[in-house]
Amino acid sequence: MRSIARSYVYWPGIDEQISQRVRACVECSRAAKTNTKTNLESWPVPEKPWQRLHADYAGPVDGNYYLIVVDAFSKWPEVISTKRITASATVAMFREIFARNGMTETLVTDNGTQFASEEFETFCSNQGILHLRTPPYHPQSNGLAERFVDTFKRGLRKITTGGEPLREAIDTFLLCYRSTPCRSAPDGKSPAELLLGRRLRTALDLLRPPTSFYKQPESKQEIQFNRKHGTKALNYDVNDLVWTKVHRNNTWSWEPGQILERIGRVIYNVWLPEKRNLVRSHTNQLRKRYESEQPTSPVQQQSTQIPLSILLDSCGLSQPSAEQAIGGPSQLPLLNQLIPTEVPRRAPSKPPRAATQQQPSQLRQSSRVRRTPVRYEPYHLF
To answer: Within 13 Å, how many C-alpha atoms sit on residue 244's CB side?
Structure first.
């Protein structure tokens, strides 16, 4: 246009006047191309975690929408599945997120109807949150949330291809993303380290030695409890016989058992032979069990070894005269075969009066088994 004008006429400043004429044309401006992109201006880096959040909706995926919230400092993501994306449902989901991690200072969203509603604006105002909405149809302004939406969709597509259900795929993706170091994060740490201050334990930690535990000194609470209740340290060994408290239908009873193994300091695995069942019991649910020393039935009666001298005395005979009557010491084993040496426990019968008159019995020390009365046994606190 300027070349054609100069071929016919000329005056000083003709090119600039023609350019101004074209720029002022309304029809030309409406048909013009988009200007060259301006310099990129990134969001300022927050000073602390959970200071500025970026939010957006992803979906639908299999009929569900997902509210995506990403922390600008730690890159920690929150994903909530929903079928309703109304303003009330959005407020309820944000209230749940803030209940776990606290309120944010700034929230960046697009111009969705649920974010632009009066209800959502009132919610942000009441919580002291500065709500910033990006220009419509310019997702670059909310690039952190938009980028994570794309990563989230591609991650679900990869995981579900292997046959994992959608709900499990979301959990797998979040655990992996939150525990993976991020280059754009401060010091290249993972989102969990920046937000929670610790690394998340994953299946890969099984390659490392297990973490050891240590017993702290007795706390003030333990000292007060032990003094108030007069506690006593109780320990059981493997194969110890115990009575264990078994609860069943809001009642409990003592059942005989045996210690199989010790779990920790006060927990034991106890085998119940009568129930043929394994239970886990606390030390407070156990007490020592002692086997009965008296036979309860003829089958359970145990025979006691009776010395030969007592058998001879019960018949009014002495051991030397018995050896002479049978034929000397060489015949003594035969007498042991003829006279039973194992008989049920009972008091020896008194010698006949006639025998005692003819030959007075010699004084000897009693061979009966002496036992302390039960009332003199050591006292055990159960």
So the answer is: 27
